[in-house]
Amino acid sequence: MEPELPRKRIAVLASGRGSNFQAVIDAITAGDIPAICVRLVTDNPGAYAIERAESAGIPVTTVDFAKFPSKTAYEEALLAAMQDCRADLFVLAGYMRILGPEIVHEFSGRMINIHPALLPAFAGLHAQWQALEYGVKVAGCTVHIVDEGVDTGPIVIQRCVPVLPDDDEAMLADRILAEEHKALPLAVKLFCEDRLEVTDRRVRIR
Ligand code: GRF
Q: At 69, which helix (H) or strand (E)?
């Protein structure tokens, strides 16, 4: 029998519904990812992700953006909350703010993000809408390592879906979301198994 891999500590940042967070929880529970999820950190006290964490027995830290006088003050508190997690990996699963350079630098190479487009096309907000407006025939999702830019870091995994003639934004988003729920747990698994090798922009999967 293969010896069990030591489990990594992961923490998740999410701002809303948390379906990607749930996909990661489910993969850990199923034994597919050698990790423990030590914390959900959210900027939104109304996030449904909080209920998901509570159901799974995962501690929650809320750093409520609205309660801070400035973005700088918020980022300081967020940084402290993240340091407190002592996590090997931070997973941005629908975290809807741009992280400041201090945080990106502090956790460099140890943060991944899921984006609902085939990067580098359609970075930023409303990616599925951008794809429809542009008229692409193939869309999808990307898991990437977080760097200082917006959705610009080295790409770990991409999965694609067709864009169908009668799609509206919600239909396309749903089709992409189903692939996100496969891509994100897989990327977390590969990280936790030490199987990602990053050279410049290229991520090799061992
Ligand atoms: C996903 O489409 C994700 O790619 C994007 O925001 C959405 C979050 O969905 N960044 P959920 O909160 O994981 O359900």
A: none
Instruction: Give 165 Cα–ligand 1 centroid separation in angstroms.
Output: 23
Give the Cα separation of 23 and 192 in Å (integer).
16
Which pLDDT value is given to residue 202? 98
Average pLDDT of the chain? Answer: 97
- Residue 65, number of CB atoms within 10 A of its CB: 18
End-to-end, the C-alpha distance of the chain in Å comes to 21
- What radius of gyration do the chain's Cα atoms show? 17
Q: Where residue 2 falls among pLDDT bands split at 50, 70, 90? A: low
Q: What total of structural domains would you count in the chain?
A: 1
In terms of phi and psi (left: phi > 0; alpha: psi -120 to 50; beta: otherwise), the region of 109 is left
> Does residue 185's CB lie within 6 angstroms of at least one atom of ligand 1?
no
Q: Which residue range(s) make up the domain with 39?
A: 8-198
CA–CA separation, 46 and 17 (whole Å)? 9
For residue 22, the ligand 1 atom closest to its alpha carbon is 13
**CA nearest 133: which of 169, 92, 102, 99?**
169
- Residue 175, ligand 1, Cβ within 6 A: no
Instruction: Say which DSSP state 65 is in.
Output: G
| 166 alpha carbon – ligand 1 mean position (Å) | 23
Tell me if 168 is assigned to some domain.
Answer: yes
